[in-house]
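User: Here's a chain of 322 residues. Predict its fold as tokens.
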Amino acid sequence: MDIIAQLGTLLGLSFISGINLYATVAVTGICVRTGLVTGLPPEFQVFANEAVIFVALLLYAVEFFMDKIQGLDTLWDSLHTVIRPLGGAFIALMQVGEASAAVEVIVFLIGASMASAAHATKAGTRLVVNTSPEPVSNVLVSIGEDIGVVGFSYLALSYPKLTFFLTLIFLVLIIIFLPVLFRSIRMLFGSLFFRIKAFFVRDITKNKLLSLPLSMDTFFDDQKGKDEEILWAGKGYAGRVPPVRRSARIYLVITSQAVYCLYRRWFRTRIKRQARSEIQKYKIYPGRLLAKCLITFSKETWLVQFYQPFIDTLPRDISETS
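Assistant: Prediction complete.
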């Protein structure tokens, strides 16, 4: 169990430093200097140095304010893409003391990996949160991170065995949700680049409409009825289209008879079809980068996100009577 306790502190501090390195160092230094936590490795005495605590608190104060401002928080996270993983690796190395070179390399890699996983999750999540037009959500998430980092750092020092299992749970959750986060980031960057391109290229939305990639176009020709006429087609992203993965790239096709969702999963092109006679509600919501299209059918609801320039090209009504 002593091994689990040692791993709990090592993994816990390395992990949480990927979210806020300076707060982690400051909490560790204060706990060691005040004797709030005992039984820590003697190498941790370096964190108790007054200069180390002062610099950590100063940098934490800077990060505290930078983290509350939309745009600046993303810039700050970008600057710390290398700093936080190296900090997590350094904190991990401090816990092994005099060890063989092989053990030090292994611990360095573990510490850097833990911090990198937490940093990637934080930076990606904040990037998604920043798409919200109001700043309140960004501030609330940042405050939650501050409280979590301070609390988890103390927990890693005081209750390392509990921290060991909590860190494993967090890693499992990251593995589960990181693909969704990466798809969301890809969607946001795609919408940003398209918005920039639309500023310089005239009629870009017209050139992108009513066209599908060759493989999907061939596939769709085999699926649609002979008398169906394509009224609108465009690339989008799934907000909620069962069973399509969230933020996955899709193509929405509106024909004279139905609404289709074309998507790829497990390297295969798949299709969902809903008759226009099943439509109960159809509404478009503009946004800064992404516009949302809500289509409620009799048995399910689709929420599709499109690049904002497409908003003016979407049909005003796609019910069967239109």
